[in-house]
């Protein structure tokens, strides 16, 4: 077996945290090796050690059988290790070629940039691996999927033998994901090796050759993809049996609760972001909103929660007109909001868990007596919700900033669900959240539905939309292209709609 | 409870200001030696000037009093994410207003005294109202506008004090009525210092601001806007409203600082009314970590330095500029606290796990 890379007994200790504990990973030439684990399992730390960002406390790295020390990212790149980050590191106003050469710009020796050779090399690499990238296009003008291929090209341009792909599918449509798989296969056929970091088990099973599972900083094991299953992997990741399928009783719909008609709104740049959006949600119904990010979902949620003014339209909850009301008024109408960006909107990161659990409800009973905060009822509230929603650590005085993503999300879920909403708006409720917490959050959302509440679920995860929703609306360029019954919806159908084509020819 | 820190956090919070002060004295010592003076005599004289006897201590507190107010001015706005560097102008406008209202005749003290204080606060608040509204409604940066308003205030205050209120030929406004005097401790203690109950008002205001920021819904909202305007808006908290509110309170605090000078120290408004208290307040807030307790300690330190410097000059012959250097080095080190954090690895958090 020709292992191109071996990481042996890697231990990385931060003050108070053992991020990697005797982790082993061996990468064979020409394989796709998936690295899976929950948030905080130590995947990123391990990759940072490999990329030279961290020095391991213990353990060794063997590259082609030779032990060596990787002092920094430049060492890693020189060795032929390339990293494609989850958040692309691209300069939007520069061209593809300019981005690719960035850091090692070719010049004529007198300080003048000479791109022509680089462009030729990029073209031939692009052809060789089927990347289909135009070196002269400006990055801001190309779609997200192509931007990702630019990142891959950046690594290949530097003669990478090993590619680390960090959560590469998070930003792609299902069709783009398939395209990426194809590219990954081409790369490995040509002898490159890929480390594929993800927490989506279906993807792992589809595309990888072998899988290494990390849990709480330890490597739990490496398995051959052909010999494992989703259930087994989930159990390895979480350390207990996990119910992957969402258990859901048949829906009992009631009267129409939420009415949205002909909603129009502009985005931050003043462009039309919502174009005649209309839908209704009944009591006991979850309406899922699918779509590639940036097609108006964010603006839709902002309008419905009072964070963005609509130009025109109707928004009613149980007959009460709420369009363009303040966020406070909308909260008082019992609309709960789990925001898309929990760091920006959902939490005051430098407030304690206790303080965050009253955000939006801080000004009234029971948390305020006149102008004074009522610290007793705040403490009671926190002491009740923290165990009920399993927020860890169980210390209400800790700053929200220091919690893991999943636990931060649980603060928001606890706060918003506990208010007893009539209409729940959940945007990307499980983004960046680990499997155990996903299971928990899904259960809670279903619970709301079964209690006869209306739920609007916006998610970039198709599987989440499909397993939770009763009906699915697909957004494209600010419009709802179609609303399907969840039973009829397939990934293919949704994928096509997300890309803008209509199944039925009716539009608008 | 919100706002209260555990001992570890507290240690972390105060270690940097303490180190900054220590470093500045070390550098100050080197400068004193390099200039051929005796450092022990220098600091001895400084200490004696600041704390050597009842009168010196009272004068140190007197020098610290306006800094308590201007330090709070900066800190309060900062807690809402704003940088009010117009404290100087707000203090001057407040001081002039107090010096004017204080001259009203025939008003009983029980009305005159609070009225004059209140008028100074309103004047300080009004002086920052335009920058506050511009910031809240149009996003105009408050650093630019508040500093511009300082320049406006210099001329405006000079005009009103010299051309309108002062007798022709005088460089100060007429004295205020005794009914608007802030009571001086020298009335009962055997000393010359003009230390007055303005200092005690400062202590009360420190506590009130602490309470307001950490124990009330108003403070909850102001701090939320300061930390994360987006999260605040999400929580139904109007950022614009809180920005205006925080700025007005901030300006009122500066105005109150001006009132203490007019009603307790000078009994009028005069040329050279403020020894740049508004600007020193920025340093005080910075050194005091924008916390009322820290501001109190920082104001004491700066008060002691400015009070001790003349004595140091007289006894040790060291130019008073040494104190300016000390203050500057303290600020430099506080502002560059990252340096200390690095050196001490106080914040080795890095990225945890994932």
Describe it.
The complex is a heterodimer of chains A (508) and B (354). Chain A is built from 17 helices and 22 strands. Chain A has 508 residues and is of the alpha/beta class. The longest helix of chain A has 16 residues, at 174-189. In chain A, strand 7, helix 6 and strand 8 (193-198) form a beta-alpha-beta unit. Chain A has helices spanning 43-50, 73-79, 96-101, 116-128, 144-157, 174-189, 201-207, 230-238, 297-304, 327-332, 342-346, 353-356, 375-388, 405-418, 435-450, 462-468, 491-498, and strands spanning 3-14, 17-28, 32-36, 58-63, 66-68, 81-84, 162-166, 193-198, 210-215, 218-224, 256-266, 272-282, 285-290, 312-317, 320-321, 335-338, 368-369, 372-373, 423-427, 454-458, 471-476, 479-485. Chain A folds into three domains: 3-238, Rossmann fold (3-Layer(aba) Sandwich), CATH 3.40.50.300; 243-334 and 423-508, P-loop containing nucleotide triphosphate hydrolases (Rossmann fold); 343-420, no CATH class. Helix content of chain B is 73%, strand content 0%. Chain B has 14 helices and no strands. Chain B has helices at 7-34, 39-51, 54-79, 87-101, 109-138, 142-165, 198-215, 217-227, 229-234, 239-266, 277-287, 292-316, 321-335, 337-344. In chain B, helix 3 packs antiparallel against helix 10 (239-266) and helix 8 (217-227) crosses helix 10 (239-266). Chain B is globular. Chain A binds chain B through residues 14-15, 17, 19, 39-45, 48, 217, 305-307, 326-331, 337, 339, 344-352, 354-355, 359-360, 362-363, 368, 371-373, 375, 397, 404, and chain B through 1-2, 6, 215-218, 220-221, 223-224, 227-228, 230-238, 348-354.
């Amino acid at each position: 077996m020709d292992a191109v890379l071996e990481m042996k007994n890697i231990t990385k200790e931060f003050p108070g945290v053992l991020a990697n504990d005797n982790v082993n990973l061996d990468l064979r030439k020409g394989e796709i090796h998936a690295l899976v684990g929950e948030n905080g399992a130590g995947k990123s730390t391990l990759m940072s050690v490999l990329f030279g960002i961290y020095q391991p406390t213990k353990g060794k790295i063997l590259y082609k059988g030779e032990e060596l020390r990787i002092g920094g990212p430049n060492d890693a790149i020189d060795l032929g290790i390339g990293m494609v980050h989850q958040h692309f590191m691209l300069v939007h106003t520069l061209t593809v070629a300019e981005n690719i050469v960035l850091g090692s710009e070719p010049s004529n020796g007198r300080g003048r940039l000479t791109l022509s050779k680089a462009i030729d090399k990029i073209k031939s690499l692009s052809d060789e691996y089927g990347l289909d990238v135009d070196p002269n296009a400006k990055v801001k003008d190309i779609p997200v999927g192509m931007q990702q291929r630019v990142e891959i090209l950046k690594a290949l341009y530097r003669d990478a033998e090993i590619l680390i792909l960090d959560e590469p599918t998070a930003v792609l449509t299902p069709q783009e994901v398939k395209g990426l798989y194809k590219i990954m296969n081409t790369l490995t056929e040509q002898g490159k090796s890929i480390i594929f970091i993800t927490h989506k088990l279906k993807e792992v099973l589809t595309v990888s050759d072998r899988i290494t599972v990390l849990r709480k900083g330890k490597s739990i094991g490496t398995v051959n993809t052909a010999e494992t299953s989703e259930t087994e992997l989930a159990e390895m990741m979480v350390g207990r049996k996990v119910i992957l399928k969402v258990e859901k009783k048949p829906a009992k719909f009631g009267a129409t609760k939420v009415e949205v008609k002909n909603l129009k709104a502009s985005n931050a740049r003043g462009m039309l972001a919502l174009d005649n959006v209309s839908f209704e949600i009944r009591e006991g119904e979850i309406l899922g909103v699918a779509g590639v990010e940036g097609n108006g979902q964010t603006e839709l949620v902002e309008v419905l929660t009072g964070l963005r003014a609509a130009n025109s339209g109707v928004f009613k909850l149980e007959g009460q007109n709420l369009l363009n009301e303040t966020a406070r008024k909308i909260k008082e109408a019992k609309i709960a909001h789990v925001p898309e960006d929990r760091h920006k909107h959902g939490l005051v990161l430098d407030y304690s868990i206790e303080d965050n659990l009253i955000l939006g409800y801080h000004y009234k009973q029971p948390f305020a007596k006149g102008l004074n905060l009522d610290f007793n009822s705040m403490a009671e509230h926190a002491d009740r919700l923290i165990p009920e929603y399993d927020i860890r650590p169980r210390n209400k005085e800790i700053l929200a900033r220091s919690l893991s993503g999943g636990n931060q999300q649980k603060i928001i879920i606890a706060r918003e669900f506990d208010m007893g909403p009539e209409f729940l708006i959940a945007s990307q409720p499980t983004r960046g959240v680990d499997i155990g917490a996903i299971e928990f959050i899904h259960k809670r959302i279903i619970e709301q539905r079964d209690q006869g509440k209306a739920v609007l679920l916006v998610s970039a995860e198709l599987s989440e939309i499909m397993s939770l929703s009763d009906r699915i609306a697909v957004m494209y360029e600010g419009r709802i292209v179609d609303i399907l019954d969840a039973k009829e919806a397939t990934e293919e159908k949704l994928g096509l709609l997300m890309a803008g084509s209509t199944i039925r020819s009716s539009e608008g | 409870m919100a706002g209260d820190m555990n001992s570890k956090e507290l240690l972390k919070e105060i270690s940097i200001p303490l180190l900054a002060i220590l470093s500045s004295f070390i550098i100050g010592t080197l400068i004193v030696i390099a200039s051929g003076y005796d450092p022990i005599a220098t600091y001895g004289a400084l200490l004696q000037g600041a704390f050597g006897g009842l009168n010196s201590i009272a004068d140190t507190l007197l020098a610290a009093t306006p800094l308590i107010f201007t330090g709070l001015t900066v800190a309060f706005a900062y807690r809402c994410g704003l940088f009010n560097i117009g404290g100087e102008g707000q203090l001057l406008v407040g001081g002039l207003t107090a010096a004017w209202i204080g001259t009203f005749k025939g008003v009983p003290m029980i009305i005159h005294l609070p009225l004059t204080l209140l008028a100074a606060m309103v004047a300080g608040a009004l002086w920052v109202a335009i920058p506050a509204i511009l910031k809240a409604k149009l996003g105009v940066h408050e650093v630019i506008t508040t500093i511009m308003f300082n320049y406006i205030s210099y001329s405006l205050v000079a005009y009103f004090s010299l051309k309108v209120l002062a007798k022709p030929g005088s460089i100060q406004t007429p004295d205020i009525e005794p009914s608007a005097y802030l009571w001086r401790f020298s009335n009962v203690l055997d000393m010359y210092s003009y230390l007055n109950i303005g200092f005690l008002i400062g202590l009360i205001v420190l506590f009130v601001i602490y309470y307001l920021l950490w124990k009330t819904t108003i403070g909850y909202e102001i701090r939320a806007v300061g930390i994360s305007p987006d999260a605040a808006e999400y929580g139904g908290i109007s950022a614009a409203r809180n920005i205006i509110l925080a700025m007005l309170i901030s300006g009122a605090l500066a105005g109150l600082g001006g009132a203490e000078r007019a009603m307790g120290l000078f009994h009028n408004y005069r040329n050279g009314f403020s020894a740049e208290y508004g600007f020193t307040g920025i340093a005080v807030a910075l050194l005091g970590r924008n916390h009322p307790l820290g501001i109190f300690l920082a104001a004491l330190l700066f008060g002691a330095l400015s009070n001790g410097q003349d004595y140091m000059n007289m006894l040790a012959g060291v130019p008073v500029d040494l104190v300016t250097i000390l203050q500057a080095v303290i600020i430099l080190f506080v502002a560059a606290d990252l340096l200390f954090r690095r050196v001490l690895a106080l914040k080795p958090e890095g990225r945890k796990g994932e």
